[in-house]
Every structure is written in C-alpha cells, then in structure tokens.
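Tokens in:
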C-alpha cells in the first residue's frame, strides 16, 4: 500500500516537471520572437530616418542614376525645365560615378544656367534628348548674355549621348552683311544685343570629355573652354548656317592639353579657334566646312601679350571654307607663337588654304604699328587640294619677320580654269612677305618655292624675338 502511494507521488512530480519544462520553452520562444520583431521594426525605422528616395516610376532612377524627369521636368519643349535640371545636377553632383540623364524623345527648354562644381569624380551627363535655348532674344536677361549653359569648376566630367544641344540662335543673327558696320547697324535696328551667348562654356574645368553629341545653331560660339585643361572632344557634330556671324565651332582660350578628334564642324566662323594661353593642342581627323577654317588668333589685340605653343593640326578635310589653316595677329601686340604643325590637310574650294596674317584688322582701317607677336617654327606638310582666290598668303611683320617656316609637299591648284597660272592668273600666285624658312618639293604652284627667304631671319630680328617676346611667355 505504501509502495503504491510512493509511486503515485512520483508520477505526479514527473507530470509537474514536464508541464514546467514545456511552459518555459514556450515562454522563451515567445520572448525570442518578440525581440526579433522589435529589432526588425527598429531597423526599418532607421532606414526611414535616412529619407532614401524611392525610384521615380517609369524613369529608372537608382542611387547613382538621376533622370531630369524625376525632378519635375516636363520635356515638352515649352515649359521651363531649368529648375529641374539644376536640382538634378545638385543631386548627381554629390554622388561619385553618378549619371545625370536627359532622356530621348523629350525636349527640355532650358534658360541660361550655371552648373557648378566641384562635384564627386566621374560624373556623367548623358544627353539623349534635346536641350533647347530660349528662342526669343528678349527672353534672355542681360546678365546672361555671355553663355547659355555654363559649367564652372568641374573635374573628371563627361558629356556624352545621342542627343542635341540646340542654341536656337536664328533670331540672334541678322542676315549676312558685307561689313562689320552694316552688321552692327542691323543689330541695333532689330534691338539685338551686340553681345551674344555661347552655347556651352567651361571655366576652370579639368579632365573633361565630350563625345557623340550634336551642338547646333548657337547664337555665338558653340563650345568654349576658358582656363581649363585635359580636354578630350571626340565624335561630336557642330552645325550652324554659313551665314551665321561669329558662330565659332570650338573656341579655346588659356587652355592646355587638348585633343579634338573624329568630329564634323560646319559654322559661320572658325571651325576651331585657338587663342592666347593655349598649348599642347592636338586636332586630327576633322571635317571642317563651311566656315573660316582652323585659326590661331587673332592674337595681340590692343597691345596685349599672346602666347601659343605646341599646336598640331593633321588629317583634316576642309571644304568650302574661307581659309584653311591660319595664324592671325594684330599689329602692336607682343608674345610668341611657336612650334606649330599643319600636316595632311585636304582642301576643296578653299579661298586661301595657307595664311599667316600679322596685319589682321576687322575694321576698314587699322593703325600701322611696329610691334608684333613673334612667329617661329611653323611647318606646313602635305597641304593638297584646290583654292578659289590664293594658294598661300604669308604677310609677316616688317619689324619682326616670321622665322623657321617650312613648306613641304604643298600642292594647290585653282578650282576654276579662269584662275590658271598663265599671265592672266598671276594675281593668284599668292602673297609672300618677310617670312624666312625652307621649302621642299613637290610644290604647286612652283612659285611657292620662292615664297620664303632663306635663312633664319637674320641675327637682328631673331635676337629681338628671343629677348623681347619669348621671355614674356
């Protein structure tokens, strides 16, 4: 009997033990689940506190992909999308390797805007749609007449895409006029400011690449670089009418280490204009025309100092241009142009394929002055094709001659038989004045062989060039 009682007590104790063990296990699992739930909720709240923007539906935004449509742009070509572009720029500027997108099949009207850096490295501006400037001259504030899209202090930056930057400049251009005076009068009559904006301008920017896009119809210059360096331009197209005044394609000033390649430029002024402070510029595989050719200058205006060096222009096709390859300086200037090479230039119906003009003047009359920007070390190699006015024009300063000028394999024939080299065509033989150097056959016309005076320019002029001009550069 006692044994049965002991068994009953032991059984009851075991049942109580099982019950307590089960209760403790359930309680522990519940606490663990509650703790996990709290941690998950806390983590979600923490992400929410960072205000990470959700992707804009349909426009493919990510943390490094900024579509201008996501910032309120309409893209209808009529609404002002300037603010949206500015906000998209600010956001993209803060993220390394980000992409600012101008999507295809949209047109964005952008008023004059400045996009500033410094930004995080490797910012990409992907232009696949169209950017449009205000078409009416009166819509431009007076404070913005220097440029339309202005980039300042940008490093490690790329513009690329299949799109178009359209300056809509036709209202800025009066019809082509035969003189600067007539053009100025036309501007006044039509209430058009004399100062006209450049389409795209870079200021103090370095390691900039521009490729594939088209820039068209700028009111003034299409693409300009000031005080910049490390510029690469590849496979771009620049187009404006031949009659559009002062619409240079690419303008370089105080800019170094530049490569312009595999592009096509047709405009109303220089395809490429190289100004003072430029060095180590390589231009190659370019189609130029219509326009005024590829020019160094005008340099030394208003007795200023001009320094240009180490410029190579090669593998160029020029068609229907006013000039081919040209160096132009104002009388009274100072400084030095040196180490310039023009080679493998194919010209077709170019008025004057080869030109050095140290008497440049854009007025009816300019005052004669003795000082000049010195020119030394200019090589012309394989300049071949047709001209319509003169094959060569070397007009060097009376006091500071051009020295070390080389002419090699220059073959230039008249476009028309009326400009033949017979007695009736002597005026088309070219002009050569105070230039020293050497020439090497083949040379057509043969008179080119007599264009250069032999030697280095004499000890007197050469000493003046070295002592008075080279030191300032």
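Residues out:
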């Amino acid at each position: 009997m006692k044994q049965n009682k002991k068994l009953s007590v032991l059984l009851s104790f075991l049942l109580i033990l099982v019950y307590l063990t089960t209760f403790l296990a359930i309680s522990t699992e519940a606490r663990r689940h509650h703790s996990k739930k709290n941690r998950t909720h806390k983590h979600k709240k923490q992400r929410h506190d960072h205000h990470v923007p959700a992707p804009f539906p349909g426009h493919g935004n990510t943390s490094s992909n900024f579509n201008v449509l996501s910032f309120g742009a309409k893209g209808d070509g009529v609404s002002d999308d300037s603010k949206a572009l500015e906000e998209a720029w600010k956001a993209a500027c803060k993220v390394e390797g980000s992409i600012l997108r101008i999507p295809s099949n949209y047109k964005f009207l952008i008023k004059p805007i400045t996009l500033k850096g410094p930004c995080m490295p490797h910012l990409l501006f992907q232009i696949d749609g169209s950017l449009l400037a205000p078409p009416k001259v009166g819509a431009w504030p007076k404070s913005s007449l220097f440029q339309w899209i202005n980039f300042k202090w940008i490093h490690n930056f790329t513009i690329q895409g299949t799109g178009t930057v359209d300056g809509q400049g036709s209202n800025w251009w009066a019809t082509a006029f035969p003189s600067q005076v007539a053009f100025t009068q036309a501007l006044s009559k039509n209430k058009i400011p004399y100062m006209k904006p450049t389409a795209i301008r870079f200021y103090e920017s370095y390691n900039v690449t521009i490729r594939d896009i088209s820039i068209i119809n700028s009111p003034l210059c299409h693409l300009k670089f000031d005080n910049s360096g490390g510029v690469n331009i590849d496979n771009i197209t620049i187009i404006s009418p031949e009659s559009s005044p002062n619409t240079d394609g690419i303008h370089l000033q105080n800019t170094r280490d530049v490569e312009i390649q595999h592009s096509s430029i047709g405009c109303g002024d220089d395809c490429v204009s190289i100004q003072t402070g430029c060095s180590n510029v390589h231009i190659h595989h370019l189609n130029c025309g219509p326009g005024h050719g590829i020019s160094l200058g005008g340099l030394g205006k208003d007795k200023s100092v001009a320094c240009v060096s180490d410029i190579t222009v090669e593998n160029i096709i020029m068609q229907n241009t006013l000039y081919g390859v040209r160096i132009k300086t104002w009388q009274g200037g100072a400084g030095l142009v040196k180490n310039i090479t023009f080679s493998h230039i194919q010209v077709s119906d170019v008025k004057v394929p080869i030109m050095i003009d140290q008497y440049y003047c854009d007025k009816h009359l300019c005052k004669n002055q003795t000082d000049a920007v010195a020119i030394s070390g200019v090589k012309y190699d394989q300049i071949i094709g047709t001209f319509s006015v003169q094959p060569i024009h070397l007009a060097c300063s009376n006091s500071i001659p051009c020295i070390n000028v080389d002419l090699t394999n220059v073959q230039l024939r008249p476009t028309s038989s009326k400009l033949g080299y017979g007695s009736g065509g002597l005026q088309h033989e070219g002009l050569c004045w105070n230039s020293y150097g050497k020439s090497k056959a083949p040379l057509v016309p043969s008179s080119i062989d007599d264009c250069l005076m032999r030697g280095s320019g004499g000890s007197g002029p050469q000493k003046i060039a070295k002592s008075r001009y080279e030191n300032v550069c």
